[in-house]
Design a protein that fits this description.
The protein folds into 2 domains: 31 residues; 106 residues, Phosphorylase Kinase, domain 1 (2-Layer Sandwich). It contains 4 helices and 6 strands. The chain has a 6-stranded antiparallel β-sheet with strand order 1-2-6-5-4-3. The radius of gyration is 21 Å and the shape is elongated.
Length: 141
């Protein structure tokens, strides 16, 4: 094998490796984040941006469920209630503390809310969790 073919082979291998890593990262980002069998991921709203913005990028994840707000609190069995539940208009919010001491602010919407209509969810409640709290919410189940 000539030196030129050897260099081309190395470049092709490196490019394929980089492409596979990027593909894997994109795949991980596109997968719906699961929070157990009683919360069905229905979508997200993304906020912020990377350049020339006043906030970091993040998303709010939305989950459809048949659980009432009280049942949802019990669903996060490793977390303790800090504040709430407090209901105002179509939204109930509550704050829980996780075993690591972090807090999660959870918004809960009834099935007739604008959020439920946005995600085309009928006859279910919608639970909203910020993306940056997803991992600790999952650990609190």
């Amino acid at each position: 094998m000539t030196k030129r073919k050897h260099i081309i082979s190395i470049v092709v291998i490196v490019v394929l490796f980089i492409a596979s890593v990027i593909s894997w990262l994109v795949y991980q980002q596109l997968q719906p984040p699961s929070l157990g069998d009683k919360l069905e991921y229905v979508g997200k709203n993304s906020y912020g941006c990377l350049v020339f913005c006043d906030s970091n990028p993040y998303s709010n994840y939305y989950y459809a469920t048949n659980m009432s707000p009280t049942e949802a609190l019990k669903y996060f069995e490793r977390a303790t209630l800090v504040q709430g539940p407090r209901t105002e208009n179509e939204q109930t919010d509550f704050t829980v503390r996780t075993p690591t001491g972090e807090t999660i602010y959870i918004n809960y919407y009834d099935g007739d809310s604008s959020i439920a209509r946005k995600f085309n969810v009928k006859n279910k409640y919608i639970l909203e969790i910020p993306s940056f709290k997803y991992e600790i919410a999952k650990e609190s189940l």
